[in-house]
Amino acid sequence: MYPQLYKKISFLKEQSEIMKIIFLYRYVSLIVTSSFYLLADSTHSFENKIFIVACISISSVIISYLYIKNQNCTDKIMILILIETIGNSFILIPSGGLNSPYVWYSLNTIVIASVALHKKYCWINLVVYLFSSTYLSHLILQKEQTLMQIISEESNLILSFILITGIIQLLTKYAKRVQDEGLKLTETNRKLVLANKKNKESLGYIMELYEATQLFTTQETPSDLIELMLDYSQKVMKTDTVIFIHPRREGKKVVIESNNLAEDLEEVICCEISSIWHNTVESEIPIEMIIKDQKYVFIAIKYNYKVFGILGITRTSTKMQNNYEEITEQLRFLASLSSITLEKFELEKVTEGLLINEEQNRIANEIHDGILQRLFSTSCGVFSIVKRVREMNTDEIEEELNIIRRAVNNVMKDLRSTVYGLSWKKDGANNFISDIESYINEIKALNNIDIKFDLTGDDELLSIAQKKAMYRIICEGIGNAVRHGNAQNIEVSIISRRQGMSLIINDDGKGFNMRGIDKSERFGLGVKNIYHLTHSLNGTIKFESQIGKGTRINIVIPNVIQEMYKEEVV
After folding, report:
1. Which of 295, 311, 338 is the last residue of a domain?
2. Is residue 494 part of a domain?
3. Are 43 and 103 members of one domain?
4. Distance from the CA of 518 to the CA of which of 239, 322, 412, 551 falls in 20 to 30 A?
5. Which chain regions cross the lipid bilayer (predicted)?
6. DSSP per-residue letters across 72-126
């Protein structure tokens, strides 16, 4: 009831609860006391009563407005209380003194003094009312009773006013304490809301960085990494534009890659970056520049002494302007992560070259030391037979040819064992299949679930990159089914043919709403990784799921080896 009443009184909307209660009592007491005054028998005519009530009502509205306007100024409040106290005293004297109904309305100034001023002013206010209602009333109206008789007759009422004043002071004291605690709680709640918002932002930031870390390490080429770096930098940093500037090569211009940069700005940025390239590369902290009234922050992506390029973002949002240190730390982390991944590509190139050289040397040595010698001996034996063929009979020729055949068979065995050193299968074991089965057995043992794995076709048709991606997709798919779907039965099927391969992961978990995911475009890290790994192999992916009916993942990937074979044939 009270909140609805407060809403209807416009000037009370933004006031504290104490002030609302004070002014609610003021108007309620005014209405009640005026009603009793109008209905009571007195020496005043009804017209005079109406005039007095109207004057009190007008003064009450005016004084209420003045109290609210000056509530933060103690001196003005003191003056307003003095004026109202004098006015109430002049009303109490002719309207009956302590027997006047307006004596209860006069308590308003005592309440306001208790709230806005020191407690001594509250008691002074009470003394003024008692003095005017007893002594001044007796003096002006010239009553037959003596002053002591009036005080004796009204002693109970006087005692009531004294006790009411004391109770008002106690209630005001605790109301102020509650109000102060409420303000502290409001401030604490505001801080908690901000802290909770920051925690959510930090958690989202950590998840995005974890996702970026996972995806960065799965890239196969530097160009894919740079494209992914631009996307995730924009997502993590919440910026409009992210650019990557390649280092200048001999005879070539600076190259810029961007996801949202106007063409007319590329030349300008190239010139500006060229002028500060050395300073940016040498600096360990981001460097800020203003290009065409737009703020940019640049940081070098380097590892030890090798520079891979410069990463830059625009500072546009208010958050980026206010949290510059946080933004620079995020930018440094992304630059560090990118430099490590790019360095990995460089090391993989060197390692791959060393491995190829090592294998070439091993094969050359084995062929030279064993196979070549045997082939030379075989060649000599054939030459000897050719020279003596006219002198040899059929049995001797047959015996010599059998010797040569056995020698050739031995050479073939040695050559086969040498070539097997380059195959995925070693010592008769298939590491690709064994790794998948090992992971499946581990998940089955840890979660007490049933997982079936089936391979149809020849897995040797898959390239190394496809096998690595396929292994990670299977791990992500099974992990999602167990963690999020609570599946008890999972089926994993790989079909490998020359045209391509397909992977199907089917589970009986709780499933999810496909429409909700498609509409919000919100995926978990596992699903995003599956999407990215599939698209990195130029494959297609399809999810089928219903709540309570499990999930089915169908992935189709073209066969790279088959395409390479066709190109060689052509």
Report:
1. 338
2. yes
3. yes
4. 239
5. 21-38, 50-68, 123-141
6. T-HHHHHHHHHHHHHHHHHHHHHHTGGGSGGGTTTHHHHHHHHHHS-HHHHHHHH
Instruction: Report if residue 406 sits inside a domain.
Output: no
Q: What are phi and psi of 93, to 5 degrees?
A: -60, -50
Q: Are residues 160 and 274 in the same domain?
A: no
* 517: nearest Cα among 543, 481, 479, 491: 543
| Structural domain boundaries, residue 63 | 2-186
At 569 the pLDDT is 34
pLDDT recorded at residue 501: 87
For 66-125, write each residue's pLDDT tens digit: 887 887 788 888 888 888 888 877 777 766 677 777 777 788 888 888 888 888 888 888
For residue 327, the model assigns a pLDDT of: 78
Cα gap 526→544, rounded to integer Å: 16
How do strand 429-430 and strand 425-426 relate by DSSP bridges? antiparallel
The residue type found at 80 is L
3-class SS of residue 542: strand
Helix (H, G, I), strand (E, B) or coil at 426: strand
Q: Tell me if 36 is assigned to some domain.
A: yes
Tokens 């100034």 found at: 109
